[in-house]
Fold this protein.
Amino acid sequence: MLRGLNLIPADVNLAFIPKRKLFFAFSILLVLTSIVLFMGKGLNYGIDFKGGIMLEVRTEKAANIAAMRKQLGDLGLGEIALQEFGQPTDVLIRIQRQDGDEKAQQEAVAQVKQALGAGVEYRRTEFVGPKVSNELFVDGLMAVGLAILAILVYIWFRFEWQFGFGAVVALGHDVISTIGIFALFGLEFNLSTVAAVLTIAGYSINDTVVVFDRVRENLRKYKKMPLPEILNNSINETLSRTVITSVTTLIALLALYFLGGAVIRDFSFAMIWGVLIGTYSSICLAVPILLNLNIQRRGTLVGETVEDAPKTP
Amino acid sequence: MVYFSKTKTIMVLLVCLFGLAFSLPNFFKESTLASLPDWLPHKHVNLGLDLQGGSHLLLEVEINAVIREQLETLVDDVRIELRKAKINYTGLGVSGTSAVKVTIRKADETDQARTLVRAIAAQSDVSVDNNTILVEMTDREIADRRNAAMQQSVEIVRRRIDETGTREPTIQRQGDDRILVQLPGVKDPERIKALLGKTAKMSFHLTDDRLDDAIRGRVPPGASLLPRVDPTQGFGQVLIKKRVMVSGEDLVDSQPSTDSQSGQPVVTFRFNSRGSKKFGAATAANVNRPFAIVLDGKVISDPVIREPILGGSGQISGNFTFQEATDLALLLRAGALPAPLAILEERSVGPGLGADSISAGKIASILGMILVVVFMAIAYGRFGLMADAALIINMILILGGLSALQATLTLPGIAGIVLTIGMAVDANVLIFERIREEVRLGRGPVSAIDAGYSRALTTIIDANVTTLIAAALLFVFGSGPIKGFAVTLGIGIVTSMFTAIMLTRLFVIIWLRRTNPKELPI
């Protein structure tokens, strides 16, 4: 008979809860560093949010980026960044937003195309004017904000506020540290990144909910067992699932990262990071935090003692 | 949970069959599909511009220009009427953003003037304060004008793009003053942008011979000093009479051509009968005097009228290249925009990059899938293989769903599919882990499977609803490619829940019935 391998042994019993102070310290450090990086170094906003021009060109032979930089620099269009993109013949050109109205941007595109001449293939031309970039930024913020809010309302509705709080902490941790990673490596923060962040939020909550479900079940099952033990058991019981799902998702994302093409590499990177940090935060943050939140043992039966649940401290 | 009614089994199989039917056309060429009977699905997945190549342009109509122009016309009309009635006035001009003001010198003429003005501006509010008449456009009037201008702009944009021969363009009005243009497969967006960037208001005017005065700064009333863009006559300036001899609206056709004598590219045009009459009369009365052809506030040519032009057709020779003549003819044929357009956003992808993205996406999905399939087989043995079969059917369902809904597949959308491959097995993982636990607790195969499915179900739903919420918000707030990501993610969640909860369960039950195992190979 074809039997599956127990990749994570059934009797696994790692001490997550006893080490929670260590995890908390690590996470606080991670979040603080991210905030410092975000404030200090800032994000490398793409043209979606900053406005500006981006061209992806392919030259016949390996591109001479230095010469191209000189050539375009002479146009006096302000800050121009060039980088090899995926392969030696491909160059990504980023030009800052031009002063003046939308017409000025179009003229700059035309100027660049003229300067580069007919020998290059324009694989991508993107230009976002100041009006639209502002709107996209606001829409992006709205999307992330509303998604997190909606997910929380759902969790609050399905569980109790303590669980909701744990989920928010884990979620905030994941989103902030993703932003920190983007600041640290100077990766382009654009619309796709927002999509990635939202998906990370979804994934992180997904992971958290699975462990929470088990905690709730065990709370009902073992009325006398001390809370730390219940939490630790719940994590270990769901550990196999947590790891296997993370592995399959990571496998797929790694395939995308290495083979999906340069255009979505940063996007895939954000997701890979998100899966790792999301898995960590559900196990090491969301659940241990429940210990500090005074869960009412009786109150865990849905709808039974909602009234005497403790007030928010 | 270890029971499947006949109807349910048939339903599950039907869903899979429909998915297959809708996904199959993607594996055949369009030409093969055309020969299939009509009742079979024959639609490919709708590829986004980032995959098939093309241009996305977001245009803004500078709608305030329409109102401003309207007010300026009103000023001219008021001037003409008051002069005709020999009423003295002062301070005639546009006031603010929606009104025209004029002060009548003699108090006893104010009433007469008001009647005249009211006749011209019937839709506007006309009020009198002392001797000053104020004509204000009502909000309603402004809204109507804007609306009409928007509709006309969309129509003209459509005509211009159609004239370039672009296949299946999408031209949509968006919000109060925007137009979204999507041009699949366009190779030269610069040309289209240039065509859309011109208002193309053309008019024919007589010239005024007091050019020297005008250049010295004394432009006579009713005349206007405009730059000349015709290098053959030396650039300089031309003083034209503001009154329009014939306007471009009276043109019925316009074609690029070459002049029979000089061999230069020219633009020929033809007037409608009203235009022919006006043009004939004006040229007959002004033989041997120059007239000016004005395009968007610039004189493109100011030839001398050699003889009356009565046939209603003529040609413009303005030292064009052939491309310029072609484009000018196109613009004149399509008509003038009521207001200038600004390009707010452009995203153009060349066909090469699109094709590369598709093949990279395919390779990534296939490899990702193979790896996940192998991993699941290792982790869960026979059950893993059942989950794998469900995963493959899941992919078919996603493809079928995308084709059936004619949703747009974008590059981030492909990323969404690859992500789904990884996450789709999650529901199965949850169930299998639960079954393992139940087995460890000493339950028999049937009861373990039953408990596994029923206990994992709430968790699966809780976990997926949260991701579905994220997908829904991405769809609402995202633009273009991101919407595509939300669509595949959303479809993927729904299909993966279906395959995990219904399909693998069906597999497991069938296997359970056939082998009746003593223990579970999980």
Chain A has ten helices and six strands.
